[in-house]
Amino acid sequence: MEGKHSIIEVKDLISVMNNTVILSDINFHVEQGEIAVIIGGSGSGKTTVLKHLLGLYHSMDQAVSVMGENPSVLEEHEQKAFYKKIGVMYQEGALLKSLTVGENVGLPLEQHTNLPPDFITEVVRLKLQMVQLENAIDKFPSQLSGGMLKRAALARAIVMDPPVLFCDEPGSGLDPVTLYALDELIINLKEQLGMTVVMVTHDVSSVLHMADRVIFLEKGVSIFQGTVKDAKYSDHANIREFFARGMGE
Ligand SMILES: Nc1ncnc2c1ncn2[C@@H]1O[C@H](COP(=O)(O)OP(=O)(O)O)[C@@H](O)[C@H]1O
Ligand SMILES: [Mg+2]
Predict the structure, then answer these.
(1) What is the pTM of this model?
(2) Which residue's CA is the nearest one to ligand 1's atom 25?
């Protein structure tokens, strides 16, 4: 493809677990600086695709390329270097309850760098500022609202300035106003940090708000990739319906 640079490529990806075919034909690419949104019904394979991109599931040599590498076939030291270059925000947020927000956000820096503690604190403060949580640095997760927890998890995901950010249903469980604010924050961070974002969602409003590229999965097959505009007028009734249902909300 001319012009922009593909930072992620998935080619004929299949995934079989316990003799069950989970993914049978996944094809898409993501260009640098885009927000790519993976959509599709429950059980269509969205999270499984993400796990292949993260190298948590094995992918055939040429099937997955993230920043030029298939993370599932890397040597251990290469894998460590790979994980420094990606941020991940899981559905459940998953902050450690026994640590403060600041400690949670600083954890990747503690684990993956030799930076001095004062410097780590400064980076954590800066990242918390970016998600408007600077006042929560000494709070514990149990003291935060749902939206604040998501923002803290986001701050932790971006603390290493990763070129690529993966999010699996980051807004799940949020009310529409808080969800909109979180989506807006992800867009702003992407711009500020020059990231590429791959996000799974089932929320149509998030897709309309954020997506530069839409990848639609149905039963383990990527039946569409393209712009939101093209998706809305797709030949596939199920894709058109996905957008029609959401827009009435
Ligand atoms: N580790 C696994 N072993 C067997 N089946 C799985 C496993 N993980 C997911 N599945 C199945 O694969 C399908 C896709 O799952 P998933 O990727 O989580 O879907 P989505 O995120 O789109 O809801 C589902 O039918 C699910 O039950
Ligand atoms: Mg899922």
Answers:
(1) 0.94
(2) 43
